[in-house]
């Protein structure tokens, strides 16, 4: 008989089913996955050698967990992934508000029903997705929300004393019995509310309005916290912190390649337009902007720069290209450097500026980050440009600069068709010669983007100047460029 077809306690016993605690369940299923070489915490990219091994150790140790890290470090995603370590279904006593285990009920309802019905006691089945509970800690959260309160209407209706368990309206934590309960941003929870969690973590006791009752709840707790909150808004009170088995530090992606994988995984499918070519160099440049932001003196490092910034920047970047494609009636297009101007709103809304950043303005900070990322990418793809040269010494980039000295009316129009855009770039013959020295990339579209990136890099090195016009971006040699506002 399929387990979920079982309807009574007697049938459940005959089936040979054995119940286990939530932490034993997580541990047992994790061990099975490890033995079978199955993937664990799929979709959590960049933590394979750091965070995930620590989480596995904590689960094997049957610990409650605190994930400590800055915003956008996949803390909530990790907690939600723990659902996959639960049994697909577990039985509970029918009608129980707190998912009573048929073998060991703890509520008045469960105990009474089992005593009354015996093997005929009805049971129901709970899917693992219904065993995950999540609460964002906010200052207005009360003990009643989390643990419960006395319901005077129920007491009057049933003519029961307030000391009777049956008059209690259970809060979120008792209702999460035999499940995973996540409290996000735990430092935001008032200290007196945190105190109410002490005995639940340690003994399973809950106390409501002075009435103490033994209710051995079976809950696996996961807390998340941001280090910034410890100084700005609150902290985890020491006795509660002491009762949390493992505190695990999360981090931002350690490389551009990892960051690219995360962004591609998270970008909404509608944005991934197969008619829009996104060069790998453009993806790398986008992530480099985030890396520059995390090091910028204009941005509050304690606040962090979320991985969500990469995702929203990518979405804006592709949407800008899509808008141009729709305007031109083109069937396809490629990402251009000019499209990066569309990512500014995704930057300004995602960073916390320090005083100096506020002084120069969010949009200027965004422009500064793009410029720094362009220069870093230029150095990695090509080479840094020396400030001083020997007399008569020239290089491949000098040839590009000399071309602009002879043609000072070069403009890349924002809304030009794909064909016109490529034709315009190809006019600059020295770009092709310089690119041949550093890249044998065969993809024409990738090479076109690299050429435009080279122009922007030369601007950052003050070899060329650029000026934004209503119709597009113009490039000049540095002498003439000084006459224009950049």
Question: What does this 3D model show about the protein?
Answer:
The chain folds into two domains: 3-249, 3-Layer(aba) Sandwich (Rossmann fold), CATH 3.40.50.300; 256-481, Orthogonal Bundle (Helicase, Ruva Protein, domain 3), CATH 1.10.8. The termini are far apart. By secondary structure, the chain is an alpha/beta fold. It is elongated and about 95 Å long. A hairpin with a 2-residue loop joins strand 8 and strand 9 (211-214). The protein has 23 helices and 16 strands. The longest helix has 22 residues, at 307-328. A five-stranded parallel beta sheet has the order 4-7-10-1-11, with helices on one face. It has helices at residues 9-14, 22-35, 51-60, 75-81, 108-117, 143-146, 152-158, 172-175, 191-195, 198-202, 229-232, 238-243, 256-266, 280-295, 307-328, 344-348, 355-360, 362-381, 396-406, 418-426, 429-438, 444-460, 478-481, and strands at residues 65-68, 89-93, 123-127, 132-136, 148-150, 168-170, 179-184, 205-208, 211-214, 219-225, 246-249, 276-277, 333-334, 410-413, 464-468, 472-477.
